[in-house]
Amino acid sequence: MNIWMHARARGLCGVSLAALLSAASVSAAAQVAAPATPQTPQAQSADTSGLQEIVVTAQHREELLRDVPIAINAIGADQLKSGGISDTTALVQAVPSLNFTRSGPSGIFAIRGVVTPNGAAGEEGSTAVYVDDVYMPDLTSTINQFNNIQRIEVLNGPQGTLFGRNAAGGLIRVITRDPADTLKFDGQVGVGNYDTYTGQAYVSAPLGDKAGVDLAFTGQNQGKGFGYDPTLGHRVRYQDFWGLRSKLVVKPTDNLKVTIAGDYYHSDDTSATFVFPLNYVTTTGVLTGPTASQDSFSEYPNISRIRIWGVSAKAELNLDFATLTSISAYRRLKLHSAFDVEGTALDNYHLFYDTGNKTFQQELRLTSNSTTPLSWQVGGFYLHLNTTVDQTQGGAILRGTASHIVANGVTDSLSGFGEVTYAITPTTHLTGGVRYTSDHRKLPVGYVDTTLAASGTLLSHATNPLESVTYNNVTYRGALRQDITDKINVYATINKGFKSGEFNLQAPNLPPVKPETIMAYEGGLKADLFDRHLRLSLAGFHYDISNFQVRTTYPNPNGVGVITGLYNAAKVKVDGADINAEAALTEQFHVSTGASWLNSRFSQFGGPGTGVIAPGYYPGGTGNATGHQTPLAPHFTLNVGGTYTIPFASGSELRLTANVSHKSGFYFEPDNVLHQPAYEIVNGSILFKATSHYSVELYMRNIANKLYNVQMNTAAPAYALAGLPRQFGVNFKIDY
Predict the structure, then answer these.
(1) Which of 32, 129, 306, 313 would give a disulfide with 136, using CB separation of 3.0 to 4.6 Å?
(2) Domains of the chain, start order
(3) What angle do CA 162, 163, 166 make, to 5 degrees?
(4) HSE (side-chain half, CA atoms, 13 Å) at 40
């Protein structure tokens, strides 16, 4: 690590350590939780040996987890920290129904096999990601580093009514802490292998008796990359980042709460751009040789430079009979990527990629304060998204030509929604909801220029004959919940989900992909048993999906390079089941487990008589993917975790935590050639809490140093991106 990087690392740790020491010198006071609103469910017992009640806001109101007829994984801040889950990409280690892949800097999530694995600028995923009720429309923004998290909620299945914006597979909700009523500080500094230095700090303070403010910082400097590049002669695959997030909460009157939030994120990331070439024989569809590696042979100094910032304002006005909520947000993103696509020492295929977007969104909701016997809410949502792309491509695969792609995509989306829940009897609850969405997609600029690389002579200028498209859709939800006891209930739901059609801004000359619709049927059981010492959730489901959006790569018909496009599979069917359990075996020993079984396949995609073309390399060259497993859909996933706490007479304690996640094999593309074999990831940590204020933690992630891929692509030649290797280190923590 050079002198500049050493100085940067020392500065990062120095700032965090100074903040720790400065906060330690302040007179500490215990954090006092805000009083519950009339709608806030209260814990029913002070018995510390049992599981604490979990309150979620999956239906835009505070409810007990077991009372919501949705399959939800709710993960609190303590579980995130003890499980070594430091960002959204690691959530797959705690949520069995969730899978993840990358496309350069973009993060792409799949829930129960529903995914569009395309990371182009302007592309929105099939899993919606929200941070404090603000929708993250760009896939680069879906990767969040955690610090001031209160909890994360992963909602499985279509959420087409209350969260209609492209939540066809489900959604991830990140909820951050509000400022405390008293002075609060916590933070940590850490050092790990690969010359990694980290720092986090969170400070919260009241401003009189009607306001509070907080500030959260997180940062990392990684001096050594995970892999080595012999072509460039140095280590590659590292990530340096830092980010700030702040909230100002004001309660000027008893019935009004205003929250102003802002965040900024800065990242220099090569971990997703240095890829490993695969031995892939296109004529036979045979994949040979190593399938995962931290190393690369790239001749380019690949990097993604990401700058993201945003501001939001949320106002909640209690009108006695209902609460009116307004959420306004503006966000900006700038990204520059240099990417050797195939990862070889030869200049076969490279690209330089600049993109940016501006987003404005506004949501209004009116929610009834009364919940018995009738509760209701109505609202509207508007999104404006403006995305620009400027990309150049070159290399031997283009046969002496260069490609310049320029695009500007504009989305205006307007929707209205409503939902009602009625208690038919004190133990029987019926929910119905509907949402209307109108998406207007424009392509003011969109062309692909092909030129002679040596002279710059223009050979072709390809444009899209369409300038705009509009997609209208109605989604709905019905749910019936039957309480067997006050701790056990069963439910059945039907949901229609919708993912908008769109132009592919990385191939703006191609036709836009059509909207994807999903009909989901689910039945489940939720229970708190044995005096809240066991929490159990079961769900079985079936999906019928039409126009499933997929990405495929195939040879250009003109013989120059390859084409990566978005296409519609005719039909997909999904069957599956989830189980999640958490148990307090003793006051000191808590365990949790989750398992998911999934059968997601193309029931009709290409082949004679279907009327649907399935481009790409398929067995026998028939272009028929019918019966194939859909991308990112492992048949079986299992997560097991546990924490054992050993208290000492002095008041200190030792906390031992371990987590294991297993995924069966799955494919990355519809041709079912690029295959990731089954693998397990094991994480562990030992935390010694010396006092209520000071602790030290030893951690290790991916203990077995398992090599696995998070991305594989047939972009001629094929390439892969490995998951993170073994990481270990020590964190010093303070909490006042």
Answers:
(1) 129
(2) 3-735 (2.40.170.20)
(3) 145
(4) 7
